[in-house]
Structure formats: structure tokens, C-alpha cells
């Protein structure tokens, strides 16, 4: 083997002539120069937001928690609710209060981004040995933080899936690729130091992930803005247009969700002056399809992770997919819930056992997709979450499946409108109205859908809600005519319900036409003395009575009374009802003596 040859300062190596055996070489990088330690700084990838809106006492709570030695806290809330914006503002306020405090930002959505953030920290604070390919960058940063003489704040942003923090990590080349000589390290969670001078703030949509890093008492829940906060944000983002009177309505329609407000403001400004607040609001109200289109807009936010989506629809769908992968039964429950009214009881409960159902509810609560009352039987979802979920179902060809399941569950639960069922009807009434816009395509499901609306109309009529009664009855009647046919008994009952609704509103002529139609069809199909035929005759007589056509009404009522006497007996409740009706007709005609005798 020949002598070692120097190639100058730029390189070093060896040259061999004839080699008869194995050759082992070791390369030594030139020693690193000692670098001057930098002064404490704020190292985050976002500028401070001049449009920041105070969120009640949330930042005060954070400041109190993070002021304690070795503090850890977590902001937990729905995607787009403003967790990262609160963390950014907290970071800058921390730096303002204490200029000698280091502030670092770690993108923590996955292992690769976590590692890159640690490498960025190592570069910023100039940790010796950080360029060594064999170095454990996590340990270097961990040890530096532990030894740091200044206070520091570490923000871990967007830890929705904490599993990568809990698994053992192999040595990588800094680009996310595992090297040929892996060295197994501790779980990444172990490289988040406990240190008296440091505090860690986590942002996450998933409470379960937060609990891997902080105590439950240190979780700060972030809810959508209240009305005043939502309006303030809209006005700041819209500028002069923010004084428009429609802003309050649009903020309410967007449920005071910060990301949706920022997104809508960006959309309006980019398309101005042709697109105004009023124009956006009008388009938003047109249809579910239009709403999802507007909420899919992916612009307008400078203070979000570059790899995150600005579309609030897509933001939530990412979480849906995570739940689908990790607990499919919870995803199924959320799919079903997305069709019910936003406040719902456990009508949506699947046939699975209570334990499984309870576990599914916990998963959905952890992601802030639902909240529950104290008894755990009433759930609430944001309407925008429901909209996003239905869009996701449509994109994944599952919309009809879950729409049919929703209708079937509701049909089985919604009772008829008799007085003894009113409490149950009232509890389910909002869900029946939610079903109006969720008509399925399958014919058998359409029949169930029509039954739900028919029973809801029955209840609406009984409590005197004329507007709802007419609307529900018309939709049920049209659906039954199409699916069951004009002469089906279910269709006839729906036609009779529409007539009842007309009568309730004093539209006697329209009611008369429909009641004649029902009566004649039943006479032909069931016979003149069938109980249902007699009921339709009595209803028609009632309509005629209200029109002041007492002679015609009397003819029908006498016929109904005599037939019921013959078929049911003189003392049957239906017979007695028809006798009472006839008595009131005689009274209206001024035949008081006969009326009193009949009533007696």
C-alpha cells in the first residue's frame, strides 16, 4: 500500500498500488469552528397578525399556565377555530414580556416535519455537532434546551396524530431517509424536555393526542368566536366593506368560525367590486352545493402552516379521513349524524353495543366534531361540519348509503301525531325538517322519507303550525304520488293531510277539491261503507260546513251517521261523533230544537 497523499485543505485521502487484503478507512471531517452563541430570539415562521382579535380570557389562561416552571399546555379545538393564531400571538406576547426568552416553533404534523424543525432550531442556536450525519439531532436539541441558561417557549403546532411521537425512531440522514446503519433511539416524546426554565405549548384538533403530552387540567379548549369577536374579525379583514349591514348575517351563517370568516373575506375582496358581502351571502344561501363551493376556497390566510389547507371544508375532511383509518365505526357514526339536525338525541345510535357507541362518541368529542349535554344523550354538531362531512361522503360515493340510513332510523323513531305522542314528536321534529333537504334516490327510501314528513305534518297540524303543515304535507303527497301511485292508500292519506293543512289556513275551496278526490277514490276502491270512506265523507262535510253550505253538508253527515249506526252500532264513538257533527249543522241552520234533541 502506498503512502497517504494530501490533497490540500479541500480534501484528504489515500492512494493504493496493489492491495492484497482488506482495507479499512476512516474519514475525519475537519473540526467544526467554535461559533459565537446567538442572543435569544423569536424563531417562528409567521409574522404577528395586526388583525388579531382577542378571544376572551384564552391568552390570559395560557400565560398563567406557561408562567409556571416546566409548564405544558395544549390548545384543543376544531380545525379552523384559530388555535395556531392564538399560539402565534402568545409567542409574540411572551417575547414582549421577556426579551431574554427564546421562542421556537415546531411543525409537528408528522415525524419528518418534526425532525426538520429540530434541525432548524439546531442551526438557529448553532449547536455544535449538528452537521454530523450520525448525530442524534433530537438529543442535541433536547440537551441544549436542558442546559439553556435563558427561558424558552417551544410551540408544537398541529399534533393531530401523536403516534409518531410514541414510536421508536431510527437514525436518518436528515432528509427523512433511514441510513444503512440505523441506531434505535428513544420515542420522540422523550426529546421534549422537562426543564424549569422551559414551557411547551401544543396545538391540536385531537384531545387524545394532547393527553399524550399534557395533563387534562392543562388543556384549554378553543371554541368558535362569539358574535362580537366574529364581527370584529370580519371588519378587520374586509376593511371599508366591513361596515356593511350584511356582515353580521354572514358571520352568523359561518357560525363565527375564524378560518371560514377569513376565507370568505378573501373571496369577497379578490372578486370585488363585483362580489360584495350581500352577493356572497345571497350565493351562500342558494343551495348546499353552492355553500360547499364557497367554503372550498383555498386562499386568504398568511398565518397558517404552508402545508395546511385554507379551505375549511378540506381542513375538516383531513380529520374525517384520520378517523376513518383509525376507528371506522366512529367515522360511520359521524356520517350518520351529519344528516340529523345539528342538535340531536341518540336517534342516530347504531345497533352496536352501548360500549362501542360510547367509545365512538369519545373519539368524535376528542376531535371536537360533536359536543354532548351533561347526560350524554343529546349531541350537537356545527352545521358547517355537517356540510363538510356530506361533501366528503359524496366524494367517496357514500352519500346515498348514509342518507338512506338516516331516513330509515328517523322513520322508525318518529311516531304518529296523536296527543299522547306529542313529546316524542317534539323531540324529533327538527330532525324531520332537516330530512326535507335529504331526499334519497332509492324508491323504498323515498317512501320512508315521505312517511317521516307525513307524521311530522300530522304533528305540525295538531299544534297549529300552518306554514310547516302545508309544506310538509305537499312534499309527502308529491313523493307518495310518484312512488306509490295516485290511488294508493298512503297517497290518499297524504292528500287528506294537504286538505287538512288548507283547511287550517282557511283555504276551503282547495281543501274541498282534495277531499272530494279522496272520497271518490275510496268509494271506488274500498266501498261506500268502508270506515275510511266514511271518514273522508265526514271531512268533506266539515269543509262544506265551514263554507256555509250547510244543506250539502247535512246530506253527507246524515249518510255518514246512518251508515255508522248500521255498521258500528248506535253507541260507537264514531257514530256519536257523526251525530254531534249533524247536530251542529242543524244548529247552524237555526234548527235548534232538533239539534238539542240529537245532542241529548
TrEMBL record:
Domain NB-ARC, residue spans: 73-240
Molecular function via GO: ADP binding
InterPro entries, A to Z: NB-ARC, NLR-like, P-loop_NTPase, TPR-like_helical_dom_sf
Gene3D superfamilies: P-loop containing nucleotide triphosphate hydrolases, Tetratricopeptide repeat domain
SUPFAM superfamilies linked to this entry: P-loop containing nucleoside triphosphate hydrolases (SSF52540), TPR-like (SSF48452)
Top-level taxon of the source organism: Eukaryota
Classification via Pfam families: NB-ARC (PF00931), TPR_10 (PF13374)
PANTHER family: AAA+ ATPASE DOMAIN-CONTAINING PROTEIN-RELATED, ATP/GTP-BINDING PROTEIN-RELATED
Protein name: NB-ARC domain-containing protein
Organism: Bimuria novae-zelandiae CBS 107.79
Amino acid at each position: 500500500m502506498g503512502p497517504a497523499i494530501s490533497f490540500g485543505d479541500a480534501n484528504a485521502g489515500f492512494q493504493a498500488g496493489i492491495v492484497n487484503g482488506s482495507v479499512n478507512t476512516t474519514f475525519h471531517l475537519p473540526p467544526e469552528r467554535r461559533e459565537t452563541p446567538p442572543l435569544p430570539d423569536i424563531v417562528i415562521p409567521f409574522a404577528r397578525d395586526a388583525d388579531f382579535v382577542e378571544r376572551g380570557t384564552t391568552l390570559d389562561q395560557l400565560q398563567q399556565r406557561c408562567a409556571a416552571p416546566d409548564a405544558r399546555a395544549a390548545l384543543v379545538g376544531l380545525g379552523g377555530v384559530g388555535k395556531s393564531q392564538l399560539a402565534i400571538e402568545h409567542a409574540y406576547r411572551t417575547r414582549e414580556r421577556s426579551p431574554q426568552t427564546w421562542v421556537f416553533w415546531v411543525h409537528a404534523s408528522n415525524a419528518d416535519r418534526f425532525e426538520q424543525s429540530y434541525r432548524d432550531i439546531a442551526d438557529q442556536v448553532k449547536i455544535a455537532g449538528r452537521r454530523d450525519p450520525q448525530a442524534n439531532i433530537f438529543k442535541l436539541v433536547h440537551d441544549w434546551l436542558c442546559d439553556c441558561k435563558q427561558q424558552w417557549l417551544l410551540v408544537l403546532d398541529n399534533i393531530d396524530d401523536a403516534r409518531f411521537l410514541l414510536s421508536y425512531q431510527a437514525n436518518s440522514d436528515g432528509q427523512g431517509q433511514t441510513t444503512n446503519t440505523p441506531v434505535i433511539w428513544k420515542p420522540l416524546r422523550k426529546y421534549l424536555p422537562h426543564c424549569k426554565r422551559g414551557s411547551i405549548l401544543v396545538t391540536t384538533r385531537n384531545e387524545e393526542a394532547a393527553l399524550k403530552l399534557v395533563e387534562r387540567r392543562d388543556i384549554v379548549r378553543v371554541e368558535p368566536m362569539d358574535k362580537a369577536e366574529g364581527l370584529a374579525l370580519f371588519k378587520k379583514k374586509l376593511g371599508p366593506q366591513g361596515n356593511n349591514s350584511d356582515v353580521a348575517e354572514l358571520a352568523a351563517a359561518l357560525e363565527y368560525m375564524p378560518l371560514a370568516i377569513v376565507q370568505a373575506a378573501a373571496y369577497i375582496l379578490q372578486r370585488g367590486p363585483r362580489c360584495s358581502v350581500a352577493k356572497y351571502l345571497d350565493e351562500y344561501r342558494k343551495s348546499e352545493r353552492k355553500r360547499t363551493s364557497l367554503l372550498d376556497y383555498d386562499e386568504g390566510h398568511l398565518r397558517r402552516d404552508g402545508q395546511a389547507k385554507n379551505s375549511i371544508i378540506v381542513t375538516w375532511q383531513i380529520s374525517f379521513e384520520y378517523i376513518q383509518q383509525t376507528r371506522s365505526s366512529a367515522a360511520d357514526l359521524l356520517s350518520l349524524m351529519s344528516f340529523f339536525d345539528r342538535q340531536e338525541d341518540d336517534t342516530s345510535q347504531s345497533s352496536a353495543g352501548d360500549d362501542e357507541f360510547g367509545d365512538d362518541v369519545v373519539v368524535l368529542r376528542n376531535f371536537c366534531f360533536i359536543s354532548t349535554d351533561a347526560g350524554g344523550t343529546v349531541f350537537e354538531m356545527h352545521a358547517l361540519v355537517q356540510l363538510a362531512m356530506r361533501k366528503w361522503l359524496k366524494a367517496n360515493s357514500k352519500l346515498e348509503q348514509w342518507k338512506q340510513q338516516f331516513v330509515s332510523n328517523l322513520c322508525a323513531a318518529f311516531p304518529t301525531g296523536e296527543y299522547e305522542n306529542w313529546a316524542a314528536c317534539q323531540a324529533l321534529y327538527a330532525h324531520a325538517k332537516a330530512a326535507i333537504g335529504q331526499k334519497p334516490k332509492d324508491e323504498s327510501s323515498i317512501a320512508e322519507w315521505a312517511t317521516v314528513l307525513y307524521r311530522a305534518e300530522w304533528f305540525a297540524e295538531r299544534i297549529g303550525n300552518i306554514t310547516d303543515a302545508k309544506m310538509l304535507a305537499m312534499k309527502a303527497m308529491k313523493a307518495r304520488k310518484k312512488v306509490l301511485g295516485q290511488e294508493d292508500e298512503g297517497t290518499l292519506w297524504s292528500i287528506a293531510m294537504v286538505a287538512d293543512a288548507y283547511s287550517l289556513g282557511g283555504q276551503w275551496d282547495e281543501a274541498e277539491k282534495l277531499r272530494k278526490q279522496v272520497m271518490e277514490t275510496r268509494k271506488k276502491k274500498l266501498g261506500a261503507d268502508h270506515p275510511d270512506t266514511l271518514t273522508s265523507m265526514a271531512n268533506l262535510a266539515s269543509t262544506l260546513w265551514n263554507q256555509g253550505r250547510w244543506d250539502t253538508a247535512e246530506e253527507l253527515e246524515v249518510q255518514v251517521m246512518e251508515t255508522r249506526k248500521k255498521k258500528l252500532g248506535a253507541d260507537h264513538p264514531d257514530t256519536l261523533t257523526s251525530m254531534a257533527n249533524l247536530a251542529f249543522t242543524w244548529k247552524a241552520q237555526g234548527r235548534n230544537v232538533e239539534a238539542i234533541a240529537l245532542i241529548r
